[in-house]
Amino acid sequence: MRIDVFTCLPQLLEAPLNGSLLGRAREHGLVDVRLHDLRDHTTDRHRSVDGPPFGGGAGMVLAPEPIFRAVEAVVPPRPLFLLGPGGRRFDQGLARELAAGPGFSLLCGRYEGVDERVRDHLVDGELSVGDYVLAGVEAAALFVEGLLEYPHYTRPATFRGHEVPEVLRSGDHGRIARWRRAQALARTRAARPDLIDARGGLSAEERALLDEFGF
Asked: Strand, helix or coil at 44?
């Protein structure tokens, strides 16, 4: 079985992959795990893999170009999964499904998130390791108010014909904030309705916000 892992911090994975049962499985050729550094697929001298989010806000966002370039250069086994809280929970059943195939690939997010065009046009799905916070998505992702995060975008504004939503380029910070919250609510309702239930359902204000943006 071949497993490809795309990350901007491969050094975090080298020790675990070389130790214990997994290390011995690699030594005996039972599993072929390949690490790919996203920084090897950048084009600037600083090897930048991130940029500030469109619409403002804290943190940085992993840019689409180095991720697309890395995946296209490697042609990894599919499915390619983005690791994040909105995906199917990784459990024994899914482990059996993946073990029955020839291989799969994982994309590790980092910083504030991954440019949404990666989720929309590159990966095959999303996997979650559970509802908790780790240092990075060589791990999981951060929850805010019990909701999945809204989509993130960074430079360039147009990438392979896919544009950043107009609202994020509008400069209208009030509308941007409403759009982001509506997106978070809609994404959580679609991918993790259990989280909506845990919050006591949607409030009238939240339903109105979803209506405002056509969800």
From this structure: coil
Find tokens 């994404």 and name the residue: 187
Beta strands in the chain (DSSP E): 2-7, 32-37, 50-51, 61-62, 80-89, 103-107, 113-114, 125-128, 158-159, 162-163
In degrees and rounded to multiples of 5, residue 56 shows phi and psi of: 80, 175
Do 82 and 114 form a contact (C-beta atoms < 8 A)? yes
Tens of pLDDT, residues 29-82: 999 999 999 999 999 999 999 999 999 988 999 999 999 999 999 999 999 999
In whole angstroms, what is the distance from residue 119 CA to residue 191 CA? 14
Q: How buried is 84 (Cβ within 10 angstroms: 0-12 exposed, 13-18 middle, 19+ buried)?
A: buried
> Which pTM was predicted?
0.83
Instruction: Quote the tokens at residue 213.
Output: 């943006």
